[in-house]
Amino acid sequence: MDNMNALLRDLHAERRERQGLPVPPVEVPAPVEPPAPVVEATAQDVAPDEAAPAPADADDGSVRDPDAVVVEQLVDDAELAVPPLMRPDQADQRFEEAVAVAVAACAEDTAGQTCYICLEAVDPDTNEGLVRGCSCRGGAGFAHVSCLARQAEVAVERGSGPGWERWHTCGLCEQLYHGVVSCALGWACWKTYMGRPEMDSLRKGAIGLLADGLYDAKHWEAALFVREAELSMRRRGGASEDIILTVQCQIANTYDALGLYQESHQMSRDVYSIRIKLYGEEHEDTLMGALSYATSLLRLERFIEAQLLLLNAMPVARRVLGEDAHLLRRMRFTYALVLYRDPGATLDDLREAVTTLEDIEGFARRVLGVAHPLTGRVEHHLGNARTLLRARKTLRPGNA
Ligand SMILES: [Zn+2]
Ligand SMILES: [Zn+2]
């Protein structure tokens, strides 16, 4: 995946240059800390819509230097907005690699367990091992990726009940899959539906789910390519503006993960301003856009603007979506980050940041579990905010 990422990155730079857009640095630095107060935008956010002609996949079957083939294919497919990593003839291998990574990452957790679907420890046909990448605890939720995929496929075929949701959300704990398990399921989903016509809604959903999975596994370059392919496909198919805006919002979040903060900022600002005009400030999509935009302001250290934006959006979210809405929690999380990272933060700001993060940490531990990456992220920031608060109290003991 690393070599592929490097090739994708070079090609991405070339394309941007051709389009007269700023070229990202050659070595894209991994963000020092986990990105996403923003994201978790999943494929189900984008509803099915119309689409158009299927991309050609030229393959003459001749034997050539594999690298030359990859580079050639990168260029050919880029024109058609089909990243090479989505080529149908590579799907089995990508899936197997992703499963192997997920099984290895879960090995300690899954030792001595069995799959809750097929009841085996190791799949007798494929030798596939177990994973667990949701919020199930104790002895619950261990499964083979292949069994989870079959379960999702059947749920979709049934047409009633959970349906598509099974591809991204565990049926036991009702929480999203995360990390490398989400990535393996993304490949499973793409493998399942890639043979359908481009206008097929399941195929479109599968592209979104693959992008989510790649993002969750921190393959951000690859996620960006798949997301851009999705955007091209949606445009070709004459998708509605709200769907285009949703995909653009996801692209902005992926830019953010890649450390392309200026690009993320521009795109999220545009999406937010269009949504305000189209839907008004109370629409959930507008509120989602406000969060993305605020995150981009935070990245650019424009703390006051980020603070004002969230101070305006949070009461609206509370009124419209309710106190327990996930989006409101994400806004409060970002607001806490804005407060404690601002060099001009007052003692009260730091106290508020700590209190807010403690509250969110309690939720994360209770609902998502201690092993969940989001819980770790909240704990990381809570630790930072507490350290700053302690330091400030030491400096000004009179205020403690
Ligand atoms: Zn199984
Ligand atoms: Zn679960």
Q: Assign a percent range to the helix content.
A: 55-70%
Number of helices: 14
Q: What is the H/E order? A: HHHHHHHHHHHHHH
User: Roughly what fraction of the amino acids lie in strands?
Assistant: under 5%
Low-confidence stretches at least 5 residues in length (pLDDT < 50)? 1-8, 18-79
The span between the termini is: 50 Å
What does the average pLDDT come to?
83
Give a short account of the largest sheet: none
Structural class: mainly alpha
Ligands: zinc ion
Radius of gyration over all CA atoms, rounded: 22 Å
By DSSP, the count of extended strands is: 0
Shape: globular
Short summary:
With 400 residues, the protein is mainly alpha-helical. Helix content is 61%, strand content 0%. It has helices at 2-18, 66-79, 91-110, 145-158, 179-193, 201-216, 220-236, 241-257, 261-279, 284-299, 303-321, 326-341, 347-368, 373-395.
Account of the protein in words:
With 400 residues, this protein is an all-alpha fold. The chain has a domain at 77-230. Helices cover 61% and strands 0% of the residues. The protein has helices at residues 2-18, 66-79, 91-110, 145-158, 179-193, 201-216, 220-236, 241-257, 261-279, 284-299, 303-321, 326-341, 347-368, 373-395. α3 runs antiparallel to α5 (179-193), α4 (145-158) packs across α5 and α11 (303-321) runs antiparallel to α12. The chain is globular and about 65 Å long. The termini are far apart. Mean pLDDT is 83; it is low at 1-8 and 18-79. The structure holds zinc ion (ZN) (2 copies). One zinc ion (ZN) binds at residues 134-136, 141, 170, 172-173, 175.
